[in-house]
Amino acid sequence: MEDTGYTMKDGRQWFVDGWKLFTKNPLMLILGTVIWILLEVLLALLPVIGEILDALIFPVMYGGFLYAIREVDEQRKVKISHFFQGFIDSTKLKPLLILGLLMVFFEIIEAGLTVTLGPFTALILAAPLGILVISALLYSVPQVMFSDSKPVDAIKSSYYNCGRHISAMITIYLFLILFAVLSIITIGLAMIVIMPVTFCAFYISYKAIYR
Fold it and tell me: Coiled coil located at which positions (predicted)?
């Protein structure tokens, strides 16, 4: 694979293109987002186990969302079931759940730090680990969904490409921080647009890197 050397400008363009992709079918992508958020709310009602389940199925939901986005990109009709493709396709479910163990590990570490050191200190200390987890899942999930990669190989590939295109990745992380702030300011309401646009940008970047 040719080293394209993606830059911070390229990273910004991925979000611009992600927005354009989102506008091709905004209603379905927003609907998929709302369903995911409602699922997280329901899981939050379950003490402890709900948070673990939410973390465990994150890659499965992320994979399904990317599947739906690919349908939009290739101008096919999007169905609600596409957002749950990670659950529907039994060959994808197990490896995606294995990837979900990374999220579970992060949640446990963050919870332990919060209890022992307080939320602010925990946030600061857990941030580097959070970046590592995001970097691991960013491209490992689409690799599993679209290329039938094994979980460990997919994680290695994701880390490799995040490192190889670190300048573009910095832009992605900066956008994620900005979006997190906007979400807090709007009491989470902005997430119904921010989340699908972000995933569209991730899909665009995946296509660029793994073309």
Answer: none
By CB atoms closer than 10 A (0-12, 13-18, 19+), residue 148 is exposed
Residue 48 in 3-state DSSP? coil
CA distance 202 to 134: 11
pLDDT in tens, the chain (211 residues): 445 589 999 999 999 999 999 999 999 999 999 999 999 999 999 988 999 999 999 999 999 999 999 999 999 999 999 999 999 999 999 999 999 999 999 989 988 888 888 887 877 888 889 999 999 999 999 999 999 999 999 999 999 999 999 999 999 999 999 998 998 899 888 999 999 999 999 999 999 999 8
Q: Are 8 and 170 in contact (CB under 8 A)?
A: yes
Does the pTM surpass 0.90? The reply is: yes
Burial class (CB in 10 A: 0-12, 13-18, 19+), 26: middle
Q: Is residue 189 part of a domain?
A: yes
Q: Is residue 2 part of a domain?
A: no
Q: Which of 108, 159, 161 is nearest to 132 (CA)?
A: 159
What is the tally of structural domains in the chain?
A: 1
